[in-house]
Amino acid sequence: MLIIEDSSEINYQAKASRKRGLGCVGNGKDIGLFVHPALAVDAGDGSVLGLAAATIWRRRGQKADDYQALPIEAKESYKWIATATAARQALTDTPLLTVIGDREADIYEVLARLPDERTHVLMRAVRDRALGEEGGRLFGEIAKTPEAGRIAFDLQARPGRPGRKVHLAVRFAEVTLRQPRLGADRRDPRAVRLNIVEVREIDPPSPKDAVIWRLLTTHTVKTLADAIAIVDLYRSRWTIEQLFRTLKSQAIDLEESLIADGDALERLAATALIVATRVMQLVHGRDAAGQTLRATRLFNPAEIAVLDALVARLEGKTQTQKNPHPPHTLAWAAWCIARLGGWNGYPKERPPGPVTFSNGLKRFHAIVEGFVLANPY
């Protein structure tokens, strides 16, 4: 199982006059709060399993002058350790976890403290760290390593950068990272042994647009196939970016909330993360992928009973308007929720998206509340 972590700001500056009890975000002037979820993802098929943990906070005041020398527990960056630890504690039956983070997670304490007998880490390196036994620096060490092979994949589009196919040279090596002197904690080892995988784009459109990923991991990397597997795991990070888009898009539109109080907005953010995760699960499970998954992945027995009662009413008179999926699969449930959200059910029409599923879940939850009230026992 993958535990993918990342942070995002929820910006309420456009409604600042109607908000209270929030902190600074972004440029240090806007107001809002931060969310840092840990998303559980199936390492095999990439499906979203659920929200494993989350940290939500408001930033108060300025950083202390000696901020860099403070212990990790006193820093905002402790979120990487605390959230991953909470996720691991919630998933005690999972035999193997890989915690994945972007460049912000390149923190020595994360690499030193998180790994254990069932937890691996995979982070994108941003710091050219000092090496132990080898001497020198991390980036120089991997740069002089012979090329192991080449790979190609489609790079996801993002604002200001269109998607494109990239061809990359692959290198990997085993390295020992020395503990930084500034802010060093005696509880942590003086050095950690890891593997680094570098992929560097061949003939990029421009030097500034070149893809260069240096990935640090506790996973064993002995072959080109091992290195490619690490790159594929890191590419799963796009899933959490999709979570943030769902959270802020029309589907949920968290930043448009009319709630004024900061405490209430934190609680709303927690609920919105859960809903956004369920919406993503429904989008992924709406077709063939969801036919092999049980509806119990998302819905409890009472909710499935409601779906059973609803399906006949949601189906039309013609065969094309019948629920085409095996009963009690995730695809079957997704079809029902989409119909509640306003989708017409015709297979040739555009498939239901996040907005439709969000609207469908709202209506479904209201129906479930009525069902529970009418059947208390």
Short description:
The protein has about 375 residues and is α+β, with helices and mostly antiparallel strands.
Explain this structure.
The protein is an alpha+beta fold. Among the domains are: 102 residues, Transposase Inhibitor Protein From Tn5, Chain A, domain 1, CATH 3.90.350.10; 89 residues, Orthogonal Bundle (Transferase Inhibitor Protein From Tn5, Chain A, domain2), CATH 1.10.740. It has 9 helices and 11 strands. Strands 1, 2, 3, 4, 5, 6, 7, 8, 9, 10 and 11 form an 11-stranded mixed sheet that branches. A hairpin with a 4-residue loop joins strand 3 and strand 4. Helix 6 crosses helix 9. The longest helix is centred in the C-terminal third of the chain and has 24 residues. The two termini are 36 Å apart.
Topology record:
Blueprint: E1 2-5, E2 8-11, E3 23-25, E4 30-41, E5 48-57, H1 79-90, E6 97-101, H2 108-113, E7 119-124, H3 138-143, E8 149-155, E9 164-178, E10 191-201, E11 212-217, H4 224-235, H5 238-248, H6 262-285, H7 301-314, H8 330-340, H9 354-374
Parallel strand pairs: 1-6, 6-7
Antiparallel strand pairs: 1-4, 2-4, 3-4, 4-5, 7-11, 8-9, 9-10, 10-11
Helix pairs in contact: 5-6, 6-9, 7-8, 8-9
Essential attributes:
377 residues, alpha+beta, Transposase Inhibitor Protein From Tn5, Chain A, domain 1, Transferase Inhibitor Protein From Tn5, Chain A, domain2, eleven-stranded mixed β-sheet, 9 helices, 22% strand
Indicate the radius of gyration in whole angstroms: 23 Å
Number of E-type strands: 11
Q: So, the CATH homologous superfamily of the domain at 123-224? A: Transposase Inhibitor Protein From Tn5, Chain A, domain 1
Question: Sheet with the most strands?
Answer: 11 strands, mixed
Low-confidence stretches: none
User: Which fold does the CATH topology of the domain at 123-224 refer to?
Assistant: Transposase Inhibitor Protein From Tn5, Chain A, domain 1
Name given to the CATH architecture of the domain at 123-224: Alpha-Beta Complex
DSSP helical segment count: 9
